[in-house]
Amino acid sequence: MKRLFIVIAVILTIALPLMAAKNPVRPNDFGAGLYLGYPAGLTVRYGMDDFRIFANITNYFRAGANLDVGALYDIVSFDVGGRPLYINAGAQIGFGYYMDSKFTMSANGVVGASYYFDEFPLEVFASVAPGYQFLGGSKFDIKGGAGGVWYF
């Protein structure tokens, strides 16, 4: 019995520092949360290592609704407080409907940053998405904001 405790103690002494030194992993699951900015609304994300598929269902402050669907790829990370801050880029396509019965469609590039917490499956992010609206009037289009996603 004494040998068993010694073996367990040796294994834990070796294994615990190795597990603590392990590179933190981003959630690879489905998540939902809030997107605050212009426009503001709900967001859903599905993570696959350094790649994310997302959809934002947003509202232009009672002027209309918007659906953005896109993908983000983590380009680089910086260490912030012992955890990585991921800089990501991607693209999205937006579909909008305004109160004056105008349907719009836009293509946007997305640049952002994401931070993942250790204690619980939460991502905090900020992004900006400049682009071009090509249906419902041709003009420059910009979306941006910050939010949080809880992964299930």
Protein traits:
152 residues; mainly beta; Porin; 8-stranded antiparallel barrel; 1 helix; 12% helix; elongated
Topology:
Blueprint: H1 2-20, E1 30-38, E2 40-48, E3 51-59, E4 64-80, E5 83-98, E6 103-116, E7 122-135, E8 139-151
Antiparallel strand pairs: 1-2, 1-8, 2-3, 3-4, 4-5, 5-6, 6-7, 7-8
Task: Kindly identify the CATH topology.
Answer: Porin
Q: Which regions have little confidence, pLDDT < 50, spanning 5+ residues? A: 15-25
Structural class: mainly beta
Instruction: Note the beta-strand portion.
Output: over 45%
Globular, elongated, flat, extended or rod-shaped: what is the shape?
elongated
Average the pLDDT over all residues and give the rounded result. Answer: 82
Helix content: 10-25%
Number of domains: 1
Gyration radius, in Å: 21 Å
Main sheet record: 8 strands, antiparallel, barrel
The number of helical elements comes to 1
Total count of strands = 8
Provide the CATH architecture.
Beta Barrel
Strand order of the largest sheet: 1-2-3-4-5-6-7-8
State the end-to-end CA separation.
Answer: 41 Å
What sequence of helices (H) and strands (E) makes up the elements? HEEEEEEEE
